[in-house]
Amino acid sequence: MPGLLGKKIGMTSVFSAEGKNIPCTVIEVGPCVVTQVKTEETDGYNAVQLGYGEQKEKHLTRPELGHFKKAGVEPKRYLAEFKGFDTDLKCGDVITADMFTEDDFVDVIGVSKGKGYQGVVKRHGFGGVGQSTHGQHNRLRAPGSIGACSYPAKVFKGMRMAGQTGNQQVTVQNLKVIKVIPEHNLIMLKGSIPGSKGSIISIQK
């Protein structure tokens, strides 16, 4: 589906015509530059590669620098491919937040906040034992038994245990576009999206 790269600005809230307070996420969408147009004849599929964010040439490898010079555009920091765009696009074209309109529904892809190594209560929502009597004094947030006895004498794969939490790619679907501010390349989506402030996200129609 067609989409754009953007940056999460933060969250706010707006009031609807009925007076309801709606939580919204503000995203700076684009402007994105077309850096490559892939066709079925040359690449086996149709897609458009977009670039977002400025990047200095000294931070690029020679193949990357040659890629941008071939397209005739300034080096970009982030690249992503999107399908579903019109085939009449060419390298150097700029796509802005104008492609979105109010009441559109979009999917947002981002990397969630990393929370480090966490226990089962925070990571999986375990309730904990909750009882501190009868000699129980320091196992309130423990996972409890993770396997059987002599049979099958192993811990099954997929057992919910403590471990690394967050810092994973997350997709949130069907978020409604509340408002579009094209002069500042901003859009407001209903609800929250993954990632911290300033993180790069992908928005697809």
> What is the mean predicted local confidence, pLDDT?
90
Strand order of the largest sheet: 1-2-11-10-7-12
Oligomeric assembly: single chain
Put simply, the count of helices is 2
Spatial shape: extended
Secondary structure tally: strands:
12
Give the N-to-C terminal Cα separation.
Answer: 6 Å
Structural write-up:
The protein is mostly beta strands and 205 residues long. The protein has 2 helices and 12 strands. It has helices spanning 62-71, 120-124, and strands at residues 3-15, 21-29, 32-38, 47-54, 76-82, 94-95, 105-111, 116-118, 163-165, 169-181, 186-190, 200-204. The strands form 3 sheets. The chain has a 6-stranded antiparallel beta barrel with strand order 1-2-11-10-7-12. It has a 4-stranded antiparallel beta sheet with strand order 5-4-3-6, covered by helices on one side. Strand 1 (3-15) and strand 2 form a beta hairpin. The longest helix is centred in the first third of the chain and has 10 residues, at 62-71.
